[in-house]
């Protein structure tokens, strides 16, 4: 038994242990070597039994597991050495004046090492360098904008402190209380106006932020009107992008808004026969404003103009749809017939108060139409001719230049 243990001890020392020493893993390999050398019969407090046999299978398992650990540590050391070499290469290129980013992560280093050629590595580092420059430039612009805003706020606060007096403060508080009282009355007696908040997945974070900004403007316009709507936010989920953007704008005042917020669908809150979904894609044109109906506006700002999204939502729920009579009252010029949410709020409030489409459609941006249909024929022709002249001015100038060039060539030939 002792001779067998001595034989295995010499085998381990002669084979695996020098390998570990050569690769710098003596510390990691020492426990393995110790487990291979020691035998149960050599421990203290145990008596040597000559009849015991060596379990060679157990020794093989121990040897194999130890070699696997050695291979894993070798691969880890190789990976660390390659990363260090790649980082040194990047540092050398930076000192040489090439376009190299100042900070580079391990994932970017791994991607850099996977590049097949030197030119591709240079292009990848240049891409990271430009990306870093863009981020720094954006951060600088944001800092400058923040500083300018703080300066203007300080100047405004100073001027307000000089100009403000007790009468102005009392007047502002009185007006604010009046607006809040009207909004509170609208929650009991006002006509409901629903904002459909189920389009979060159809927009990017930037579009969601723009949508919330327009809804904030709409709420402020509604609160200041003589007969405000009772605003409902339906399909509104807690901790959604809408919710986070609203908290950014309102902060502590979010819980004090005089509106109704619910996660239920509007079909579960109001009867279907009274609901009209306002969408620019609807084939049915709205003729008059009905005070008994409940109008729904899709809370969506779509820069790519995906047509039919809100119309499909209304058809799926079996709701009546309508669009504003823009072509009936306006000579539409360019652009889609989609309006912002605050423009829709202004139009609906004006229709509710006056019922005059001409007065309500004055909130449509002037760049989208050239006039109302009811104007005289002479004025319409004049405005249309002016539009055509502006559109064809560039083309006419190109034609004149070409004619002058050809005419000069003919004169030289003669």
TrEMBL record:
Q: Which domain of life is it from?
A: Eukaryota
Query: Where does this polypeptide localize?
Result: Mitochondrion
Q: Which GO terms describe its biological process?
A: methylation; mitochondrial tRNA 5'-end processing; positive regulation of mitochondrial translation
CC terms in the record's Gene Ontology section: mitochondrion; nucleoplasm
Q: What Enzyme Commission number does this protein have? A: 2.1.1.218, 2.1.1.221
Show the GO MF annotations. Answer: tRNA (adenine(9)-N1)-methyltransferase activity; tRNA (guanosine(9)-N1)-methyltransferase activity; tRNA binding
Keywords in alphabetical order, please: Coiled coil, Methyltransferase, Mitochondrion, S-adenosyl-L-methionine, Transferase, Transit peptide, tRNA processing
* Species name: Apteryx mantelli (North Island brown kiwi)
Q: Per its record, how is this protein called by name? A: tRNA methyltransferase 10 homolog C
What's the catalysed reaction? Answer: guanosine(9) in tRNA + S-adenosyl-L-methionine = N(1)-methylguanosine(9) in tRNA + S-adenosyl-L-homocysteine + H(+); adenosine(9) in tRNA + S-adenosyl-L-methionine = N(1)-methyladenosine(9) in tRNA + S-adenosyl-L-homocysteine + H(+); an adenosine in mRNA + S-adenosyl-L-methionine = an N(1)-methyladenosine in mRNA + S-adenosyl-L-homocysteine + H(+)
Checking InterPro entries in the record gives: MT_TRM10-typ, MT_TRM10-typ_sf, Trm10_C_MTase_dom, tRNA_m1G_MeTrfase_euk
> Mind telling me which Gene3D superfamilies this protein's record contains?
3.40.1280.30
| Ranges of residues in domain SAM-dependent MTase TRM10-type | 179-371
What general EC class does the enzyme of this chain belong to? transferase
């Amino acid at each position: 038994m002792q001779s067998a243990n001595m034989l295995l001890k010499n085998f381990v020392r002669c084979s695996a242990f020098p390998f570990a020493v050569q690769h710098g893993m003596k510390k990691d390999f020492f426990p393995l070597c110790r487990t291979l050398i020691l035998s149960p019969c050599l421990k203290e407090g145990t008596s040597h039994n000559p009849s015991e046999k060596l379990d060679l299978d157990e020794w093989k398992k121990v040897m194999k597991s130890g070699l696997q650990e050695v291979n894993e540590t070798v691969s880890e050391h190789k990976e660390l050495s390659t990363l260090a070499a790649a980082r040194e290469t990047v540092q050398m290129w930076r000192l040489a004046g090439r376009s190299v980013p100042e900070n580079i992560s391990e994932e970017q280093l791994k991607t850099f090492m996977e590049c097949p050629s030197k030119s591709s590595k240079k292009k990848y580092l240049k891409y990271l360098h430009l990306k870093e420059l863009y981020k720094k430039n954006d951060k600088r612009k944001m800092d400058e904008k923040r500083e300018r805003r703080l300066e203007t706020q300080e100047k405004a606060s100073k001027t307000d402190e000089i100009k403000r007096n007790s009468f102005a403060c009392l007047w502002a508080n009185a007006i604010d209380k009046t607006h809040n009282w009207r909004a509170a009355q609208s929650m009991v007696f006002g006509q409901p106006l629903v904002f459909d908040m189920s389009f979060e997945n159809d927009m990017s974070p930037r579009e969601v932020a723009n949508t919330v900004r327009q809804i904030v403007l709409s709420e402020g316009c509604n609160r200041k009107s003589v007969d405000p709507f009772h605003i409902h936010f339906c399909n509104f989920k807690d901790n959604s992008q809408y919710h986070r953007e609203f908290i950014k704008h309102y902060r502590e005042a979010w819980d004090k808004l005089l509106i109704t917020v619910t996660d239920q669908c509007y079909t579960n809150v109001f009867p279907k026969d009274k609901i009209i979904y306002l969408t620019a894609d609807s084939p049915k044109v709205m003729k008059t404003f009905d005070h008994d109906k409940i109008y729904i506006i899709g809370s969506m700002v779509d820069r790519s103009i995906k047509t039919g999204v809100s119309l499909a939502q209304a058809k799926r729920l079996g709701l009546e749809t309508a669009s504003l009579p823009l072509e009936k009252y306006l000579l539409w010029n360019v652009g889609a017939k989609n309006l912002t949410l605050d423009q829709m709020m202004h139009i609906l409030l004006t229709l509710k108060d006056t019922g005059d489409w001409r007065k309500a459609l004055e909130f449509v941006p002037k760049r989208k139409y050239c006039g109302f249909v009811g104007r005289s024929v002479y004025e319409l022709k004049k405005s249309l001719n002016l539009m055509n002249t502006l559109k064809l001015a560039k083309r006419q100038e190109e034609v004149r230049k070409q004619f002058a060039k050809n005419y000069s060539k003919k004169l030289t030939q003669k």
